[in-house]
User: Fold these one by one.
Assistant:
Number 1:
Amino acid sequence: MEGWIKLHRKLLSWEWYQDGNTLRLFLHLLLQANHAPSKWRGRIIGQGQVLTGRRLLSKQTGISEQSIRSSIFNLKSTSEITTESTSKFSIITIIKYGEYQIDRKKSTSKSTSNLTNNQPTSNHIQELK
C-alpha cells in the first residue's frame, strides 16, 4: 500500500482519542480503507471499506482480539463505522470516510506564481542615490 490519509486536528477532541486501542484501531482502519472501489471474489469493496476480520486486525495492530471487539463496539456505538460480517470475514465501513479523506476544495484556478513585468519581486532591493 502506498499513499497518504488526512487527519484533522479535531481528532484531538474526539471522544475516543483518550482510548488508545479504539484510536489505534480507527487510525488503522483509515489507513487500510479502500480509497477507490475494488472487486474481491465477485464482491465490490467500496471506497471507505475494509475487508478484514478480528484475528487479522489483532495481528496487524498488536491489539488483543477481545480489545478489537470492544473497540469495534465503541466505534459502532458512536456511528463511526458499520460492520457486515460473514463466518469468514467482515466488511467494515467508515461512515464518514468522504468527510475524512475526500478533498472537497479542489482548486480550479491557475497558479499566480509567475510575476508580471510590472510586479516587483519580493527580494528586489531598490537603492536610492
Number 2:
Amino acid sequence: MLELCISGKTVEIFRAKEPDSPVVYLNSYAKDGKAVYSELRRICQKPFSLVVISSLEWNRDMVPWSHPALADKAEPFLGGADDYLDVLGKEIVPQVEARIGHTGGRVIAGYSLAGLFSIYSLYRTDLFSRAISASGSLWFPHFKEFVFSNELKANPEKIYFSIGDRESHTTNPYLRRAEDDTRAMEEYFRHKGIETCFILNKGNHYKNVVARTADAISWSIG
C-alpha cells in the first residue's frame, strides 16, 4: 500500500499486480482502506486497484449544493462537490494513474454522502465508467429532481445502489424518503439501458459499512 497526500486529501493506493485492472476510487469518511481492501480480497477473485480518499471535508466535498442542517447540532451542507470533483479529476486521478499505469476502467464509489457524490459525478464528468452508491444519501433535497431533469455526461456501464431496510424509519421528512428515492433512481437508470443493481440490506445506515462497501465494489468489477 502506498499513501500520498494530494491537495490536502489522504490517498491510499492498493495496486493490482495484473495490468489493465479496473481502478476503484472510494471516497471515505473514515480511513478504512485496509479493512475494505482486506474484505474485497476475501470475497472477490477479480484483480483490481483500490484508491481510498479520506481527510475529506465531508459536508462540503460530497455535497452538490448548499442546504441548512437537517437537525439541531448537525452541520449544514456547504455544496463543494464541483470543487472537489475538479481536484479529483485534475490532480488525484492523474497522480494515482501515473503510479499504477493504464487501467481497465474507473469506478467511483462511496457510502452515505459519498454515494450521493458518486451519482452526482456522472452528471459532471465522463471519467468513470461505473458508479457505486452504497446507502447513498439520495434523499438529499432536490437531488432526485436534478437526476431526472439533467443529462449524464456519458452512460456508465453499471451503477450499484443499496439502502438499509431501517434507514427510512425516521420522522425526518428528508431521511424517510431514503429507500423510495433510491429505488426510483435505480429504476430510472435501468430504464435508460444501464446495468443496475439494487440491494436492500438488513439494518440501519451504520451497520456493516465495510462489508456493504466491499460487496458493492465486488459487483461493480465483476
Number 3:
Amino acid sequence: MPVNFLQIRSQITSMGSQAAEWQARLQEKCDSARELFGHYQLRNADLQEFVVQAAAQYPNLRCASPTLEPLNFHHAALPPVVQYVLLAADGSQINPSRHDRVEFGVINIGALRMPIGLSEPARETVKTELLYHEGLYTRQGYVGEDMVALMRDLRERELLAELTKKEILPAVALTDGPLEPYREPKPNQDFERMLNDYLSQLRELGQNNAAAAGYVDKPASDLVIRLLELTLAENNAFTAIIQEHPLRGVRDMDLFANLLQPGERSALFKIQSSLSKKFTGALELHFFFIKVGSESDSTLARVEIPGWVARSPELLDLLQGAIVQQCDQVGGRPYPYVLHRAHEIALVTLDEKERVEDMIVQEMMGQGIFLTKKSAKQTYKDQVGTRTRYK
C-alpha cells in the first residue's frame, strides 16, 4: 500500500504552522550557546575541570573537552609537503538474512592509493570477505547489522595499516565517518574483543606515523554544545543538567560555521565518552572542525584524529592541507575526492549480491547439500519495486 498522502499532508501542514515558533526557540538557544562560547573562549582550564567533575557523576557523559587552543582558535591551511601519499579506505557489506536461499554475509573493503607530487598512477585495492557457518554467530547469538558494521570498520583500518606500512613518504590515511566505533549500551563480549582488535590496528597506523583521520561530512554532533551546557549546572549538579539538555537542537555547526573561513580548522578538542578509557595515550581521540570549499559554496566537516596526530604539528598541518586540496578537486559540494573514489570501489550492488548468492547455491548443490527456497516474505518483497544497490 502506498504512503497515505492525505494523512501525511495534514501532518506537513501542522509542521509548517509550527516551524516559525520552532525556529524562534532554536534561535534563542543558539544565541545562548554563542554567548557561553564567547564567555568561556579563554577559560579552557575551567571547562576541563567541569568535564572531570561531570564524568565522575555521570560515567556515560559524552562531550568535548578543550585542549590548549582557545575555543575561538582558527588556523589556515598550509600547503602540504611537496610529495606525500594519500590513502583512503571505505567499506560496504551484505548483511546475512534468514530469508535468502542461503545465509551468508560479505564485507567488501575498497582502498585508493594516490601519490601526490609523483608521476605514479593511483592504485586500487579491494578485499572481500565471506561470512558463513560459524562466522554468522557471536557469543550473543546470530550476528547483527551493528556487529557486521563494526567488522567492516575494523577491516578498513586493517587495510590502511597494511598499506601505510609499505610507504616511505609521509602518508595521510582517511576513512569516512568517525574513528570512535559505535557501542551498544549493554555489555557485549564480542564488541570488546573486536574493539581490542580495532585499537591494535590504530596503534599500527600510529607506529607507521600516518596522519590517520575519520572525515564526518555535514556533522550533526553537539559535543561542544554539551560541554557548554555543563557550565549551566547549579551547585555542580551535572547529572541534572546533562539529562535536561537545555540547548537541545543546537549543533556544533551553529558555533563554527561563521567562525571559520574556507580552508581553516577550528581548535582541537578531546572526546569525552564511555570509551575514553580505551583510547588512551597515542590513541586518545580528538577532533576539529574544518570549512572546505569556496566563499560561495562551503561546508563544514568534523575530522576525528588520534592522539599521535593531534600532538604532531607536522602531521596535523599535512592532514589539513590534504583535506582542503582534495575537497577543491570536486568543485561544487566539496568532499574529499579520494574518499568518494574509495566508496565507489567498495560499493556492493544488488546484482553482485545476487551473483554471490548464486555462486554459493551452485557450490552447495554440487556438494549434495539441500538448500531451502527464499522465504515467502522475501519472494513477495522482491516482486515489488526495483533496487539498484545493496546496503
